[in-house]
Amino acid sequence: MDEVAQYERYAGGSPEAERLVFERLARELLRVQLKVKKRSGAASIDRAFHAKAVLGVENARLRFRDDLPEALRAGFARPGAEYPVTVRLSNASGARQPDFAPDLRGAALRVEVGPGETHDLLMTSFPVSHARDAVEFVAFAKAMAGADSRLRKGYALFVKLPLAVGWSTAARMRRNVVAGTRRTVRSLALETYWSRGAILWGDGGPVRYQLRPAVDAPAAPDASRTDPDYLRRELSQRLRQADVVFELCVQRYVDAQRTPVENGAVEWREDVAPVLPVATLTIPHQDIHTAEARACASRVDLLAFNPWHTAEGFRPLGNLNRARKVAYEASSAHRLGRRFLTVEPRRNTVLGVPLRAVFRTVNRFVPWDRLPTPLGLLNLMAFRQTLRRNNLIDTEAHEAPPEPGSVEAPPEEELLVRRSYDGTYNDLSAPRMGAVGATFGRTMPPVYNPNGFDTPNPVTVSRELLRREVFIPATSLNILAAAWIQFQVHDWVKHKRLPVATRSVEVPLPPGDTWQNTPGGPREKVMRFGEDEAVRPSDGGQPPIVFASDVSHWWDGSEVYGSDQAMAMSLREPDGGAGLRLEEGHLPHGANGMPLTGFTDNWWLGLSSMHTLFAREHNALCEALRREYPQMNEDRIYHTARLIVSALIAKIHTVEWTPAILATKTLDIGMRTNWQGPPKSWLDQLGVWLLEANGRQGIPKTLPHHHGAPYSLTEEFVTVYRMHPLIPDDYELVDHRFGRRIDTLDFTALQGASAEPLIRKTGLVNTLYSLGIAHPGAITLHNFPRALQAFQRDGEVIDLSVVDLVRTRRRGVPRYNDFRAGLHKPRIRRFEDLSSDPETVARLRDVYRSVDDIDTVVGLFAENPPAGFGFSDTAFRVFILMASRRLQSDRFLTVDFRPEVYTPLGMDWIERNGMTSVILRHCPELAGVLPRGASAFAPWRPVQPVPNGSGHG
């Protein structure tokens, strides 16, 4: 990069600042494409520019001159070297207009040097750009989009463009455009094409290149004023008779004033930078109307040319070229159906601002949950928009400045209709987005404070504020709700932990205390556990607060199916069968006593019941697919069943679990709106029409939408899902037929390797029944499970409540008061603002010096939640943002949630089923105890015990 630094200057002062500008401009170009499509009435999205191809061939040749100047001999540019070339000649407009319409013309060459090395050369038939930089270029494109008549073009050039860039800039741009388009073009074989931007040419420094017709090229007939395709007909006739030959030439950089790199609107005059021929391009004579030639032209038209398809020694230079990488990748992905843009209706844009302001004012006096239901829903929609605008922070390391590279192969066709094993290619335009190894995002800027890692002492915080003294039940739920959320979290998030022996966190204990860090190990004065592995360790002043997930961020059922191909294949039936391996309906045993399934960390009886149930559901689906589609092979059956199960799980979580734990009418309607659109009442319909018209039929019928930041789950999301108080310490296993107690066990007896023998002995039916009639713990202070405060895991003994506190601090999640402020809630000023319980306030005051020191987890547990809520309103703020994002970002839950991908049977299965029907399919004996008119996560009806020896009365 050092050799180009002398030529380039980054907008915004840094490559990263410039990248953000280019990302915004790329989205604007997608809007241009949509506008052109709408105005033209086209059936599909076309290229943003150069939409109409005049010629597309794959058999051209580029041969470098034998007398190539020494200074220009670099890389593939060697004397006498010859390469195959793909050529596309085109009109420059983004609309497919007649050839006789005023327009520039373009040439795109793809030079195939060898495996992994290509060079795309892009040129236009005027020596300079109408725009000096990317901002001007996009402003012009936006102004001219859809200007398909003389009146509209005049309005665009003389009204819209000056308003966007200023009068003097608009005048200069008009002059360049008029000069470039007013010429009559007789043949594209007789045009000269200029790169307009500079590229590096090895040690020869920056050059601009051009393609000019051979001096002996035959003349062309007069241009037609009536034939819309006369340029293609002329080239066809010319190629039937002879080769079409061009000279590739370069002009070398002189100085920043006369041959600027950053300003594309300044011509490199030939008297300053002489034109030097370097190679000959030959398009051999041929008939371009044969079936083979037409197929070739179609292939060429699908190609995504990009000047960054090149080698490091030939990297493009200058602002316009740097923008082209982002813009061209986005535009081509949009055209090929790999990237999507949701255009917000103007009324939503206009009305959203005052409505958000109104609700900000209303919320100072009346909380959203106390508003009438329609207003509460509108309030939540408005707040979600605020969060989408302000609380999506990307943490991935991006390429800045852009780097050259080879042409990427298109995704495998199978990946268009099935989920990958590791979450790649969900977003086809950004294959690594949300995949295994993708970083956790942020919903607010991190706060990295090493001095506060142990202050106040997390062990003291845990003992004074978290430790369960008396079990506090959540009486509106059953324990299946606790098992379910752990089942889901294991699908979404997993921080990679370093082994204790490699690098550990050491938490000092209060004076006089000791801790046994390993089973049977010595008592120590510190509590020790493995540290999170940061993606980018601390260097250059950057704290290590970016972490990656070991499972994909997508809702893809990875807890059942695994997160890599080897694991997924090992869980399937032998000989490539579509089903999951089960032993008499239960998960098979692994060598370590743990079951064979996609995710087994922190295993216990509740998780086992969920995994067993949905493994059976997968196999039931495989059988149904085999019967319905006998021609479908086992691999397709497996992947289709996985799609259906994953979507069904997403539906259950959205419309059943969430309304169960957030039991209000407003949330019930809100979550069902996410999945299937708003109710039919005119007031609810009006609210969606005013604020989010794109969701009027539910998220699964929309396009994927990331709302300006690549999809990921966030560190704050992980924090609010620390719901360990849901886990009871004691369990009673009960026979579902007679209501008789089978056994009473503590948590230790049903976790880890003990879980599978127990569920096999008890049976899935009795296990589900036992969990279904019992309550989980309430998510509040003084209710953290005792069993998890001395929890054995992977050869360690940990206090999970301390681990939760320490990891949250070390991951840079702000403390509670800053967390509230980051989610647009007022800060608390007194301990009494957090809790109405005098004893809790007294303990908070004893542990923390000020309200600003309160740990996030403690604050979330201490809040008095809205009526019917199972967790705090502050935690719910993160939920508002992420609940819809998990659906709306996912291709398989939006644009590809359709019968062609899922099969008609699959779509019907998802529509008709929920948690209750899944349970009854595999455990029909439970029909009489499941709740009527409520979700399966509400308490079940207990069977009245039958006294021994009694008869019927």
TrEMBL record:
InterPro entries per the record? A_dioxygenase, Catalase, Catalase_core, Catalase_sf, Haem_peroxidase_animal, Haem_peroxidase_sf, Haem_peroxidase_sf_animal, Oxylipin_biosynth_metab
Query: Do the record's keywords include Nucleus?
Result: no
Q: Name one GO molecular function term.
A: catalase activity
Cofactors, names only: Ca(2+)
* Known EC number: 1.11.1.6
Show where the Catalase core domain sits: 46-343
Instruction: Indicate the enzyme's highest-level EC class.
Output: oxidoreductase
Q: Identify the Gene3D superfamilies for this entry.
A: Catalase core domain, Haem peroxidase domain superfamily, animal type
Claim: Ribonucleoprotein is one of the keywords in the record: no
Q: What's the protein here called?
A: Catalase
Question: Which keywords does the record carry?
Answer: Dioxygenase, Fatty acid biosynthesis, Fatty acid metabolism, Heme, Iron, Lipid biosynthesis, Lipid metabolism, Metal-binding, Oxidoreductase, Oxylipin biosynthesis, Peroxidase, Plant defense
